[in-house]
Amino acid sequence: MTCDIILCGVGGQGGLSVSVVIARAAMASGFLVKQSEIHGMSQRGGQVLANLRISDKEIFSPTIPKGKADIIFAFEPLEALRYLSWLSVERGTVVAATTPIRNIPSYPDIESVLAEIRKLPRARLIDADSLAKQAGNVRSANLVLVGAAADLLSVPPEAIEKEIVALFSRKGEAVVQANLKAFEYGRSIQHG
Amino acid sequence: MAELVLSGDEAVAQAALDAGLSGGFAYPGTPSTEIMEYLQEYLGDKRAGAGDADGGAETGSVLEVRTAPRVAQWCANEKTAYESALGVSFAGKRAMVSMKHVGLNVAMDPFTNSALVRIHGGLVVVVADDPGMHSSQDEQDSRLLADFARVPCFEPSDQQEAYDMTRLAFDYSEEHEVPVLVRLTTRLAHARALVKTAPARDVPARGKCTDPYSWILMPEMARRRWLALLDKQAIFRVDAEAASRLVLGSKELGVITCGLARAYYKENEDEWARAHGGERPSHLHIGRYPMGAEKIRALVAHVERVLVIEEGYPFIERDLRGIFGAPVPVAGKMTGEIPLAGELSADSVRLALGLQAREGSAVAGIEVPGRPPQFCQGCPHADSITALKKALEGEAEFFTASDIGCYTLSALPPWNAVESCVDMGASVGMARGAASVGQKHAIGVIGDSTFYHSGMTNLIDAVRYRTPMTLLILDNGTTGMTGAQPTISGTSQLPKLLEGLGVEKEHIRVLEAHKRALDMNVAAIREEIAYDSVSVIVMVRECIEWLKKARKS
Do B376 and A45 touch (CB under 8 A)? Predict the structure, then answer.
């Protein structure tokens, strides 16, 4: 089993932390993991990217080769389009939030961005912000997305829940519950 | 023995701690910053782990964590950090200094000379290169600088080796009385994997060096020490040779890898084998320098052609080709199979191996604009730069020299506010140099951390020659770009320091970097650029990123 995951978004979204949640859950479930991210300049409101590779065999490259990604988690819809050449033609799924972050002057029309994502054979567009708000914390939108692809992860959801608790426990029970709920809301979405 | 999930940076730090480190010293610089942050977290027993909600190990840090008998400190720059490490070594304790690749340029003086002294407590120099320039001004290769200094260089190929090699480096340093450079690259420094650690050893206390002549590099002594260093090279080569790994396989192709190149090669090896009747290429992995020649000769004698895959400069490849050429065709960066610029990837290595490019999903039918980094919402630099731009409106002639830090982002649209960014401290020197030959309104724009790092000395020149220039110090109290480490000296110290350097008191202006003070700030900048000698404007407001982190902890 190999699951190659790209997580992308905009610096400051705090999106890459969910990479840690999935990675730890995968390890607790007996998989090997390699995680790669870039710190520094790009983090200041620019495009950010993390690679997460999960496997039951030794993993070599810290980054995912082109055409090999099983999942692209895009915490911002335009960012999903940036990494399509990494997405596997045969089995890749894009899981993208629908809320744009328009911090560049040339941001394209959002409808055409979403239409591009819908064109893909396997795409899940999620109004993660609304669901996160309903869950009680808008900052938990990232976990809505993870929930929305939990069936693709080959990591038991219980293992992910455990890591959510571990990650947020020092921020108090309310934050833990909101994030668990966000994950749960994501999981309950039916995909056509 | 424990199993930990560590980035390359964290593995190095954990290894140093387990090897009995007494003193860790550094100046922040991507991709090396997390080494010191990990040391501090560990020593301060406040490890938040990799689970900090805003992206892993970049948790807030403090200037110093001291947990007797150990200390981990941010320093003014890489040179001061290096020299502190040297002092620790002289005192008989183990020391590590960590930096990004261009930081080694700043520490080059102590680095090259420390190769000649009789290193006492183990001294490990960790340098994280940034091929691809994710967050840097160049992609220099530190292996060449280790070679230049005649210092052994260890180059891990994964996180486990980052741990193992760093531990070994301390022993090797003491055994051969020489500093050891550990070279990382971005993807190794910032990628996490499982690392098995070995039991920690005690912090050694050997007592101070009792042979001070071996540390006094006056010509007579230095000549002897230089010969001693040259003598050691043969041993370094023998040891490097023993550590390199040769597996003879296919006669068709021999592959030489080093560092992370191994991972990119291994990613494709199975497929190459499938395409070649199940046989794998012959493979030599080199992990230490100066490298030996025997296994290279054995490989070349076995194969029809060689592919050299290395991250950085064609360092091994150049040696291999020599002037008289290799006995078999050699492919690599110098012949273009591997790109000369940028970082390696499984994809570029794949092509170099002669495998077909892998197709990804179709690219989007609409153009995807780039999303360059930009100032955080509410960043004080944005207000300072706005004031500067307004102050210069209508001026036909000016030169805005900038420096290394978040404020360099003001070079990009919509700001287009600064005209240069070369190296730490260059804003001050360049504005001064230009002004001294008649450039009107020469203005340096520098952050407080960069000013302490390398700007101060330039200002002394400006004061001495009464150069008509203005320096804007954007004082946010942190090194922001690397994740908000505290500046070496506090905001309140800056005016006193400037006065001490000889800047006239009336021309040291301290302003609030906030849009509510815009008109006042514009007026002040206009007044000072009109002054015909040195003036310094300190724009003060704390970093937003730092505030966020402070609130969180």
Answer: yes
Host H or E run for residue B400? strand B399-402
Look at B358 and A67 and tell me if their CB atoms are within 8 Å.
yes
B263 touches A: beta carbon within 8 Å: yes
pLDDT of residue B342: 96
Residue A190, chain B, CB below 8 Å: the answer is no
| Gap between the Cα atoms of B491 and B538, Å rounded | 9
Q: Is residue A192 part of a domain?
A: no
What's the CATH number where A92 sits? 3.40.920.10
Cβ–Cβ below 8 Å for B369 and A108: yes
Q: From residue B513, how far is each of B208, B372, B378, B398, B521 by CA, in Å?
A: 48, 24, 11, 22, 8
| Structure token pair of residue B81 | 């950090």
Helix (H, G, I), strand (E, B) or coil at B399: strand
Q: Cβ atoms within 10 A of the Cβ of B435, count?
A: 24
For B135-189, the pLDDT digits (tens) are 899 999 999 999 999 999 999 999 999 999 999 999 999 999 999 999 999 999 9
The answer to whether A172 contacts chain B (CB < 8 Å) is: no
Give me the CATH code for the B380-551 domain, please.
Answer: 3.40.50.970
**Cβ-proximal residues to B119 (8 Å cutoff; 6+ apart), any chain:** B89, B173, B174, B177, B178, B179
The domain tally of chain A equals: 1
User: Any idea what DSSP says for residue B202?
Assistant: P
Rounded to the nearest angstrom, the minimum Cα separation between B145 and chain A is: 24
Question: Domain B2-202+220-239 has what CATH class?
Answer: alpha beta
Say what the ipTM of the complex is: 0.93
- Tell if the pTM clears 0.90, that is, is over it: yes
Q: Assess if residue A151 is contained within a domain.
A: yes
Domain that includes residue A136, residue range:
2-187
- Delimiting residues of CATH 3.40.50.970 domain(s) in chain B: 2-202+220-239, 380-551
CB contact under 8 A, A59 and B193: yes
> Is B481 in Cβ contact with A40 (below 8 Å)?
yes
pLDDT digits (tens, 9 = 90+) for B21-74: 999 999 999 999 999 999 999 998 544 333 333 333 344 568 889 888 899 999
Residue B422 touches partner A, C-beta closer than 8 Å: no
| Mean pLDDT, chain B, integer | 94
